């Protein structure tokens, strides 16, 4: 990491289905990517800027960046001194369960705004982290449920179903399925379009409309997500790189860090050790605000 930057990406064993990131970034720039989980990022210092779909938004102290699963977004410093944040990544099933339990919302839920100005909720996110760091399972679980219910009540609801798919959207879905099956040695855009009976430009436009990024960017993101699954299962990073189609481990390292925030080796070590302290990855000074 660049000088002055530091990050901890970890899990607390008593809070299953939730990843935690506590970081300070200055020159770090996250590539356009997605998560299978929700993202609650409480900014404690500085400003984070990020593209959310087609908009550039900013989040500062006391605010929370909210990202729904499978929603393309980026991330970079909004001020020269960078930003510090504590992020929780709750699994979608956890959020759906809380929505059903507290608000009687059943089905696909999500958030309507990418940035929420709610200092109390931001403190709850910080509280989840601190409780996990202290090994206080009751507090960590309670605070997670409180902040999720609060966000759903004020800024969330049932996700509106998508309208019927056009022919272009169907081609985009077929292209995605083909790329998932051929992560190693994927076809060119021209070949992919020809196989689907459309033109390269029409496919490119349809794919971006449906998935928020062009096919090659989506493929890189999909490779990183698949690599995370392999790393979680204990696959060595070099082997994971080959399985998902990166030319070597250095390419995996670069793209993984640009999407996840830490290198794959550190990510795997943090998730493979026992206990909340041993599962913590650190670079730089040990304390963050």
From TrEMBL:
Top-level taxon of the source organism: Bacteria
Keyword tags: DNA-binding, Transcription, Transcription regulation
Region (Disordered): 258-289
Domain HTH araC/xylS-type: 173-270
Xref: InterPro entries: AraC-bd, AraC_XylS_family_regulators, Homeodomain-like_sf, HTH-like, HTH_AraC
Protein's name in the database: AraC family transcriptional regulator
